[in-house]
Each structure stands twice: as structure tokens, then as C-alpha cells.
Task: inverse folding
């Protein structure tokens, strides 16, 4: 799965999303997906529950202040991504179960279709994770001036 294609065609990016815990940020980013037309209004709660169910089975927060909450849901036929980037000057939240005690600066929320064959979302997450291992990319993302700056940094 081409991560840049998903990031340009089926992804919203929000800078400094509202929330002081992962659950609230998930709700905020889901609302952005609904407002942006990526998810149906009627599917909002189902989508959130799918993400929270997956999160209960094991935290998706990884070292370095990144969270990858995701879940399978019947409300979308395509993989949908919503990225919440907390910029350098923004207060970060430290989720329960954080593997390194660092505050989360990036939430990469994925809605995966129920009938998606294979593990395409895992490949997307792996490619995104590889990019996020580069300190210069992290610095660019944390200092972004706009959502387009974030998208450009991730796709270069």
C-alpha cells in the first residue's frame, strides 16, 4: 500500500487537535473525518468504538511519542487516515501505558474497512513508522506551519 497515496487522497491532517488524553484525541480526529466527508455522520460512534476496542486489546502507543490507534469498521469501504500533529509549542499528553513515559506528539488514526483483504493497513503503518524514525523528519513535522507542510514532509 502506497503510504503517500493514502496521505494525499484519503487523509486529513489536524494540527494541535483538542484533547488531553488519547480517547479524546481519537474523538476529535474522528469528528474531523466526519466533517471532512471521509466518514458518514451516522457511522461516527461505530468508528470510535472500533478504535477503542482495538486500543483495549493493547496500547498502540510506541516509543518516541507516537500513537497508531486503528480499528476495523463497517462504516468505510477504504482505509482512512487522520493525523493529529502536536507542534513544538503545544502541551503533550502522556497516555497510560506509554512505553517510554514521553508525551504523544503524533496520533495516526486509521479506520480500516471490515472486509479489507490482508493486512494493508499494517503495511501502511510500517511505512509511516519507517519515515518517522528519521529525526530530521520529526523536527520538520513538529515545526510545521500548516497541514500541507505536514503532508509534504511525509511524502518527500
Result:
Amino acid at each position: 500500500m502506497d503510504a503517500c497515496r493514502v496521505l494525499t487522497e484519503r487523509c486529513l491532517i489536524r494540527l494541535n487537535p483538542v484533547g488531553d488524553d488519547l480517547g479524546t484525541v481519537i474523538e476529535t480526529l474522528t469528528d474531523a473525518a466526519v466533517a471532512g466527508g471521509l466518514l458518514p455522520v451516522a457511522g461516527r460512534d461505530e468508528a470510535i468504538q472500533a478504535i477503542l476496542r482495538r486500543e483495549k486489546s493493547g496500547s498502540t502507543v510506541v516509543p518516541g511519542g507516537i500513537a497508531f490507534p486503528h480499528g476495523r469498521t463497517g462504516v468505510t469501504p477504504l482505509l482512512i487516515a487522520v493525523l493529529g500533529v502536536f507542534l513544538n509549542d503545544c502541551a503533550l499528553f502522556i497516555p497510560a501505558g506509554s512505553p517510554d513515559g514521553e508525551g504523544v506528539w503524533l496520533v495516526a488514526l486509521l479506520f480500516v474497512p471490515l472486509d479489507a483483504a490482508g493486512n494493508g493497513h499494517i503495511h501502511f503503518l510500517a511505512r509511516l513508522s519507517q519515515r518517522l524514525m528519521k529525526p530530521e523528519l520529526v523536527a520538520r513535522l513538529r515545526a510545521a506551519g500548516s497541514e500541507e507542510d505536514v503532508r509534504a514532509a511525509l511524502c518527500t
About this structure: The CA atoms of residues 1 and 122 lie 9 Å apart. The longest strand covers residues 106-113.
